[in-house]
Amino acid sequence: MDDRPMLITADNITDMRAAEGVIVPGVGAFDDCIRNLEPFSEALFEVVESGVPVLGICIGMQVLFDASEEGNEKGLGLIAGDVVRLPANVRVPHMGWNNLHLQRYSELLDGITDDDYFYFVHSYYCVPRDDDATVASVEYGVQLAAVVNKENVYGVQFHPEKSSKKGLHVLSDFVNMCK
User: Fold this and answer.
1) Of the residues 33, 58, 126, 169, which is catalytic?
2) Which of 38, 43, 66, 77 is deepest in the core (most CB within 10 A)?
3) Closest CA to 97 of 132, 54, 140, 133
4) Is 178 considered catalytic here?
């Protein structure tokens, strides 16, 4: 991806405050993810305020929003909107490959087309309050936000690390966006 040194995990808040880019990963439940982020939340808000790119992946994208039907904890509120359960008429979780429908250009998806497939595993999806926050959507019973962006905050509902070369391309685009 890049020859620059990369810190894969941040064990302390100082590491996060010095970062050129932050990835908020996530697997599991909304409330657990928010509680695990609690010690880092102030530093994360500072990072966002300073203009450093932040990328939320899967539940990491969902916690960027205000709230989730899945839990009782408040989200980070970095992107206005809520997280709701997939409709009853589809198999839950949404697990498998699906192609994106690009809504607008984003550096995060530079070189990605509507024909490119990504790997999804989720039972809830984000509903941004502002339609302009949606960069790409995916069809799964409903059109749902698959990639979101507000200023320097980005989120992907799919797992780029499980999405073969195209997923690595998205991660490379993110690294290139970092200083």
Assistant:
1) 58
2) 43
3) 140
4) no
Burial class (CB in 10 A: 0-12, 13-18, 19+), 156: buried
Per-residue pLDDT tens digits for 26-85: 778 999 999 999 999 999 999 999 999 999 999 999 999 999 999 999 999 999 999 999
Fold of 13-177: Rossmann fold (3.40.50)
In terms of DSSP H, where are the helices of 25-145?
A: 30-37, 41-49, 59-62
Amino acid type, 28: G
What pTM did the predictor assign? 0.93
Name 123's Cβ contacts closer than 8 Å, sequence gap at least 6.
Answer: 70, 85, 86, 92, 93, 94
Active-site residue (options: 20, 70, 73, 159): 159
- Considering just the CA atoms, what is the radius of gyration of the chain in Å? 15
Q: Has 33 been annotated as catalytic?
A: no
